[in-house]
Design brief:
By secondary structure, the chain is an alpha/beta fold. The chain is built from 13 helices and 12 strands. A 7-stranded mixed sheet has the order 2-8-7-6-5-3-4, with helices on both faces. It has a 3-stranded antiparallel sheet with strand order 9-12-11, with helices on one face. A two-stranded parallel sheet has the order 1-10. Strand 5, helix 7 and strand 6 form a beta-alpha-beta unit. Helix 8 packs across helix 11. It is globular, with a radius of gyration of 20 Å. The two termini are 21 Å apart.
Length: 344
């Protein structure tokens, strides 16, 4: 029987060994509940060090929770969240943001690939009836980094979007489900893609990149943090044994482990795409992180699946491939060998 090679999602990988070791290390004795423990305090210090300024961090168990709750603290019920039309918050989260933000709609803007442009945002602002109570008022701009299709924004691109948003009084949120992959791809500091570029709230993805059950909301705004203290409790995201969530995130961010994990995932995708390019298969758009969309005829995709490759068909003629921190060179090379074998 052919052993499957899993390229469906970075969510299918297990937890990094260091995460399991961190959980075992805090699984003794007693500790104060609801985040009043030393492990959570250590995480707060760690996040401030990583982002090079005082920051607040709130652990949650999913990226959807991080996005919806983070955005709800920025957007009034009469406001609207501006995003790309393919944004995860718009198409994959069952209107969670609208629920937690009191009904605020999401305004999905068209854009080549999966990236927002300043032109698209400016056009949205131009057709808005500002001050008209009959219209939801754009209140938050959310940008995904890395994007849903593996593209990345340079720091100055995020800065330009944030500056435009601020010119109309919007707050700025970053969906960082694959934030580590973007930082690793760009080789910049985490601060360069967040507060230095004008971002006020970051949904910090970690589960896709090595933790077991821990993502986070990071904010650089004290007032937003005060809101989140209560919003998380109302949403059921204040863990009574908070040290177990904090331990995962603290181990993740320590000693740049999170970036090492992301570099492995990115390198695996680069290796895979280089081999597929030799066979005439190229991602559209070009991918720089660990996720790629490729135009592949359905009959060819069926042969790949029959050869034991696991992946998602996004729509007719398009497949999505994703590598993870756990994807090995041997797995990539075997996947390419199988593709070559069924391409003859």
């Amino acid at each position: 029987m052919t052993t499957p090679i899993d390229l469906r999602s970075d969510n299918t990988a297990g937890a990094e060994p260091y995460v399991l070791e961190a959980l075992a290390a805090v699984n003794h004795g007693t500790a104060a509940s609801y985040g009043d423990d030393e492990v959570t305090a250590r995480l707060q210090r760690r996040v401030s060090e990583v982002f090079e300024r005082p920051a607040h961090v709130f652990g949650v168990v999913s990226g959807t929770a991080a996005n919806a709750l983070g955005l709800s603290a920025l957007c009034p019920p009469w406001g609207a969240v501006v995003c790309h039309e393919s944004a995860h918050v718009a198409v994959n989260e069952a209107a969670a943001t609208s629920m937690f933000a009191g009904g605020a709609p999401l305004l999905g803007l068209a854009g080549e690939g999966s990236r927002l442009t300043t032109d698209a945002v400016a056009a949205c602002f131009a057709r808005t009836g500002w001050g008209d109570p009959h219209q939801s008022q754009p209140s938050v701009l959310t940008v995904t980094q890395a994007t849903e299709m593996g593209e990345v924004y340079e720091p100055d691109e995020i800065g330009a979007l944030a500056e435009l948003a601020r010119s109309r009084g919007l707050r700025v949120h970053l969906d960082g489900a694959r934030f580590a992959n973007a930082v690793a791809a760009l080789g910049c500091a985490p601060a360069d893609l967040t507060w230095r570029a004008g971002v006020e709230v970051l949904s910090l993805g970690a589960t896709k990149n090595g933790t077991m059950t821990a993502d986070a909301i990071v904010t650089f705004d004290d007032d937003v943090a005060a809101q989140l203290t209560y919003r998380l409790k109302r949403a059921g995201h204040v863990a009574s044994k908070g040290r177990f969530v904090a331990a995962q995130l603290d181990a993740y961010l320590a000693a740049d482990r999170w970036l090492a994990s992301a570099r492995r995932a990115n390198a695996a995708m680069a290796r895979l795409l280089a081999g597929l390019a030799e066979l005439g298969h190229h991602p559209q758009p070009a991918a720089r992180a660990n996720i790629a969309f490729l135009p592949v005829p359905d009959d060819v995709a069926a042969r790949w699946a029959d050869a034991g490759l696991l992946f998602y068909g996004i729509e007719p003629g398009v497949v999505r491939l994703v590598t993870s921190w756990a994807t090995t060179d041997a797995e990539v090379d075997e996947a390419l060998a199988r593709v070559r074998a069924v391409s003859r």
